[in-house]
């Protein structure tokens, strides 16, 4: 069953924004809160209805609960349909974009009479908006950039979203059609790129069952338009989370499976290079197999391994297939042994209800120990500069430490480690004292402000603290919403190596920070990495999968990732840095 929580949360966010546009702050806050609660539920909201637990969800009142039931039953919320008529139609899609927001759009609407996206873009470019009080060149520039990023992001979806949709479709096809022998999601989803365009699915089946499979696929309830329907390929438009996505399904024979899998996984550059090498060997590769050019004899194609072996290579993991040296390494049998999800022993960046997380430390421990079998987690709530996130000052942090120690004592384990996500201030100093930081097991330091400034020196100075063990989301980007802040990552990587500081691969779907390019650079320089989920709710822990995917795309091995190691080994890493800076351990 496709999880509808995100769809419902998106509607509630739009309702909140519209209410704010209409100056109804109370309802705006109620629906914004409801959106976050629904988004953070560990299970599909429909299961709460079935089990009679919907009205017991903390923070969901009877009015909003009834709208959830209405959406589940009818696929729409009548109140939302009514609200949309009270706001210019184009503003609905822009109303929760960074740089815009309900108040900004309302001013533009009331003072300039602008009600369409086209008029808005024109006014941004011709200076009318810049002349409004409180608007300047920088704000207008950021609004135009935000619009540009939004238009690009509309055409692509985040990896996490693509994986959820793909798995839902694969599961649906497998359960309904016993005629399918093999099935796999291919393209950039299989390569685990951070954003995905169209979704591509391959199956194998007997010829006589092709039409039945295509009939089922093109008649799925999510299909809004059939673009192409044939016995070998069908393309449809499907609607998920209010967005339309193209999904292609191709059917091959079992003996063609490996060749088709290799061909449609890509990337284009990887395949071109592969075909060039095959040509040099008198071979031809296509989606049906590997053939001798002179005789047309098929020599491989049933498995991917056979395709690569035919041209003298070891099998190349999909994440590496970007033509960045993986083909040469495969020919020499020198590919890295990439880190795997099962190698992860713990999560080093977790938020609780002490700051802006929605789950207590006690409940986090119970959930993680049951589901993930980790050896440790580190609670890293925000520090005091993050007032909006209820950041901890020294006094509250010491109270949290006592709670962690009590939870460990009651469990008879040393499972929960004491940490913080400390803010890096503008001058590179930290917003908590060394005295309290020295009491912690692990410290993540992050930039959360002044994104327009060059933050290189700021981050490097933070790394010179003996108590900072990792830099969180080092480039500060939010995919599709915010570009990385100015930072010289080469200099940061060099400083990380010199100071004994790790860099984080933040696995939040919109962050994926650092990305694969900087992961590979860090690995080459011998800098240790941590893969963290930055969890704020129980569902976020699953993001570890895509964090590992980014590490793999950056050629990282198990030895490069700190949280594949025991806590004793991590403790040695922490102590080594303290000793380097003259701190007694």
Automatic annotation (TrEMBL):
Keywords: DNA damage, DNA repair, DNA replication, DNA synthesis, DNA-directed DNA polymerase, Methylation, Nucleotidyltransferase, Sodium, Transferase, Ubl conjugation. Residues 52-71, 92-111, 127-146 form the Helix-hairpin-helix DNA-binding motif class domain. Signal peptide: none annotated. One of its GO terms (cellular component) is cytosol. InterPro entries: DNA-dir_DNA_pol_X, DNA_pol_B_palm_palm, DNA_pol_lamdba_lyase_dom_sf, DNA_Pol_thumb_sf, DNA_pol_X_beta-like, HHH_MUS81, Hlx-hairpin-Hlx_DNA-bd_motif, NT_sf. SMART domains: HhH1, POLIIIAc, POLXc. One of its GO terms (biological process) is DNA repair. Repair polymerase that plays a key role in base-excision repair. During this process, the damaged base is excised by specific DNA glycosylases, the DNA backbone is nicked at the abasic site by an apurinic/apyrimidic (AP) endonuclease, and POLB removes 5'-deoxyribose-phosphate from the preincised AP site acting as a 5'-deoxyribose-phosphate lyase (5'-dRP lyase); through its DNA polymerase activity, it adds one nucleotide to the 3' end of the arising single-nucleotide gap. This is DNA polymerase beta.
